Amino acid sequence: MADGRGMDAVIPAAGRGSRLGELTADRPKGLVDVAGRPLLACAFETVVDAGVDRLVVIVSYEAGQIVDRFGDDFEGTPITASRFARSPNSHHRA
Q1: Are the CB atoms for 33 and 42 separated by under 8 Å?
Q2: Which of 83, 81, 82, 78 is nearest to 5 (CA)?
Q3: What's CA 8's distance to the chain center, in Å?
Q4: Would you state the pLDDT for residue 28?
Q5: Where is pLDDT greater, at 85 or 8?
Q6: Which residue intervals of the chain are DSSP H helices?
Q7: Which end of the chain is less packed: N or C, by CB atoms within 10 Å?
Q8: In 1-94, where do the E strands start and end?
């Protein structure tokens, strides 16, 4: 980019993934295995290959598991985990 800041990718990973049933009973949907790898790893790889310089992951449900699994970077690309805060007036469907 012309301003030298690079390009960020925002990856939404905040939902419970309840439609995935038992696959998300003990983990967030971003950690469900797809072809032997966590779903988020597949998404990270795609956007890193496209040239992003930073991953911003929006987390909520079981956020600690995602942070523990990936840490501060994915294959050298920095990760920032932003906590999604649900409004007290929002309606959540289980």
Answers
A1: no
A2: 78
A3: 13
A4: 92
A5: 8
A6: 39-49, 63-70
A7: C
A8: 8-13, 33-34, 37-38, 54-59, 73-74, 77-83
Burial of 11 (0-12, 13-18, 19+ CB in 10 A): buried
Q: What φ, ψ does residue 34 adopt, rounded to 5°?
A: -130, 115
HSE, side-chain direction, 13 A CA sphere, residue 63? 12
CA distances from 85 to 40, 52, 72 (A): 20, 25, 21
Q: Express each pLDDT in 18-69 by its tens digit.
A: 899 999 999 999 999 999 999 999 999 999 999 999 999 999 888 899 999 9
Query: Which of 30, 82, 84 minimizes the C-alpha distance to 57?
Result: 82
